[in-house]
Each structure stands twice: as C-alpha cells, then as structure tokens.
Design goal:
Largest sheet: 6 strands, parallel
Number of strands: 9
Structural class: alpha/beta
Shape: globular
Low-confidence stretches: none
Bound molecules: 6-phosphogluconic acid
Strand content: 15-25%
Strand order of the largest sheet: 1-9-8-5-2-3
Length: about 250
C-alpha cells in the first residue's frame, strides 16, 4: 500500500482503514503472539470502529490476542459523552471478543492527570517488559490546527519533546481542556501508524504538513516520525484538495 492514499469520501476511507487494520493485525500475529493496537479519538475513526464490528471484518481478527491502548484521552469519567474510552467501547470494544484485561484505558477518576500519566507509563513499561513497547498499530487523526492525539501547537511536548511515554495536557484548545496523551517517544517506537484525515477543514493544514519542513511546535503531527516504522496516510478528497499522492 502506498504511504499516502487519497480516497473519494469518508465511507471509502473507513473501509480502506478497516482493510488496513485487519491486514496489519493478521500480519503481526503471523510472527508474534500478541498485537498491540493504539486507538485514537475524534469523529473520523468512529465509522472504522463500527465497520470492524461487522461480521465481514470482526471474524478476520483474532481478538483474543489483541491488546488495546489509547493515544490520548480526555480527562473525564468513562461514562462521560466526551470519553474516548467510552466512545471506543460503544462503537467497537463491547462488540468484539477481547479479554477485558487486554484493554488498557487511561485512568480518569480518583487521580490527578499527572498521576494518571505516570500510571499509564508504568502500564506501558509493564507491557513492554521494562522498556517502551513497540506498538504494532497506532491510529491517529489530525485537527485543522495540525494537532494529533492531544499534542497541540505551542504546547510543551511539541515544543520540547521529553522522555516520558505519557503526559498530562492542560489548556487544550480543543475541549475538554484537560487531557492525557502519549508522547512522541511512545508514538515513534511504533511499527505502523495509520493517520486518518477527513474533511475540508483539514485541507490547508494538510498541504502544509506535506510540503513544509517539520516543525512540530507549529504542526504537532510533523513530530510523528517513527524510528523504524511506517506512517500511512489515509485522506479523503475533501481534506486532500488539489494535493496529490506522495
Ligand atoms: C480528540 C482527539 C483528536 C482527534 C483529532 C481529529 O480529542 O478527539 O484527541 O486528536 O483525533 O482532533 O479529530 P476528527 O477525527 O474529529 O477530525
């Protein structure tokens, strides 16, 4: 698959993303016992999540060997309408046979955001056997301001990337303002990152991201540069505009 795919519409984008998810998980499980998948929030992946629960897709994945993490989370309880964990459960996880202890959400109650980030880092290190795990598949979106996960323009991590694997985020311009996010260090260990971008409001930013030199402080998604993995862009025509495949 080429690294930049432009598809006609969001429906095709969801279908192609689902094919890619199935393919990546199957390929991974041919050579490993387990497959780690990092979910994203936003509205774009919801159609993908729903599609993965349909029989044609659900039955192609060995869910018993999948581990689920989140690239970011909003600091609200799981039953809050803004919860990304809640969204993923409602659209995907409640409908596929994944063992509950293989679903690893950020903690958003009975702790501070900083404590939650630290706890998530410990969980990631535990999963990685004491070192940062190499995620097999990471799903990401992009906002019109170039943010990805909860890494926002001008914020500390995009400006001065740190060593932490997970971080607390304050003053996010996209509500709610308090969030949690994986760091570049965590994302950039991944083997495959699938970036889903849909909608005309992303067009101007996408053009910059694809043509301008990397400046993560200004366009945080440009900090996604895996050490030895691949980034696959799946973009609908509205977001791509006149830009062509790279
Ligand atoms: C969120 C995500 C955010 C999202 C992008 C793209 O809080 O929703 O953390 O990073 O993935 O903003 O969102 P859309 O898919 O809705 O455009």
């Amino acid at each position: 698959m080429r690294n930049r795919s432009i598809v006609p519409d969001p429906t095709t984008l969801a279908r192609q993303a689902a094919d890619s998810v199935v393919d990546t998980i199957r390929q991974t499980l041919l050579v490993q016992d387990r497959c780690s998948v990092v979910l994203s929030g936003g509205s774009t992946p919801q159609a993908l999540y729903r599609l993965l629960t349909t029989e044609a897709y659900r039955t192609q994945i060995d869910w018993q060997r999948c581990w689920i993490f989140w690239g970011d989370e909003r600091f609200v309880p799981a039953d809050h309408p803004d919860s990304l964990y809640g969204m993923a459960r409602a659209t995907l996880l409640d409908h596929v046979p994944i063992p509950a202890d293989q679903i690893v959400p950020f903690q958003t109650v009975a702790c501070s955001p900083a404590e939650s980030a630290m706890h998530y880092q410990q969980q990631l290190l535990g999963f990685g056997g004491g070192v940062p795990p190499r995620f097999d598949l990471v799903l990401l979106g992009m906002g019109p301001d170039g943010h990805t996960a909860s890494l926002f323009p001008g914020h500390p991590e995009p400006t001065h990337p740190g060593e932490a694997l997970a971080l607390a985020v304050e003053n996010a311009p996209k509500p709610p303002p308090i969030r949690l996010s994986l760091s570049y260090r965590a994302f950039n260990q991944a083997r495959t990152l699938l970036v889903l971008v849909a909608g005309a409001d992303k067009q101007a930013m996408l053009q910059q991201v694809w043509s301008e030199p990397a400046n993560p402080a200004l366009r945080p998604i440009q900090g996604i540069a895996p050490e030895s993995g691949q980034v696959i862009w799946l973009v609908d025509q509205a977001a791509a505009g006149q830009v062509s495949h790279g």
